[in-house]
Structures are given as C-alpha cells and as structure tokens.
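Exercise 3.2. Students should predict the tertiary structure of the chain below and write it as structure tokens, then compare their answer with the key that follows.

Predict this chain's 3D structure.
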Amino acid sequence: MATKSLGTTFTFTPAGGSAAKIGQLSAISELNCDSELIDVTTLSEQSGCRRFIQGARDAGEIRLTGFHLKTDAGQAALRAAYESGKAGTARIDFPDGAAYTFPALVKSCSLGAAQVDGAIGFGCVLRVNGAVESVSA
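Answer key:
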C-alpha cells in the first residue's frame, strides 16, 4: 500500500555543526541513484551483443522547495553551508519509518519572488557527495 508523504522530514548537519530540521518544506525531490556503465564487450562475443559492468554510482542532486522563514534554523544552516562551501550530512525521514542519510554539498539556495497574495518561496539544491545509506530504526 502506498504511504502518504505528509510527515516527511529533511535534516541537515553542517560540517562541525548540529543537526537542524529544514522547516516550511512543501517538496523534496527524489533521490535518483544511477551508475555509469563500463563496456566490457570482447571481440570474441558470440551473441553479437555488448556486455557491461557497473561503474561509478552517482545519486545526483536533490531539490528542496518550500516557504522562506527567516527564523528557521535549518534554512539558515543550508545558507551558511553554501557560503562556507563545506559539505554536511543530509537525512530524509519518511512517515513509514524509512530513513536515508548522505553527504551533501549545498549547490544553490534561493528565495522566491514576492507576489500579491503569495508566500515568499525558499529553494535549495544539494549535490549528493557520496553514498546514500539506509538508516536502521
């Protein structure tokens, strides 16, 4: 059965700092783990088909979207990590108890446009900088 995403949390721990939940999030993009393929086809391949082995794995980028809140410690931690250029550790906790952690660099932070009858937006792109690991409960 499918699980609702309401209740999902995203936490960021900057290098040398304390963990802070990112508040006011409305969306967290998927973790898209992918890998390079290494062609190992030989001239003697009888099937006429190429053969591959898995190369380096890459989990890409993850995008956070939400609403700006000046007093949110998590948003401030992401902006500070962007300014310092130092990697931190990210963690996603899903309502069904699944949790994942990974090292990440803050690639970009943005504040949304201000509009009449609109909330000021917040956005952040994190570059996964290593392995994504499942966290045991």
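Discussion points: Residues 73-84 form the longest helix (12 residues). The longest strand covers residues 99-111.
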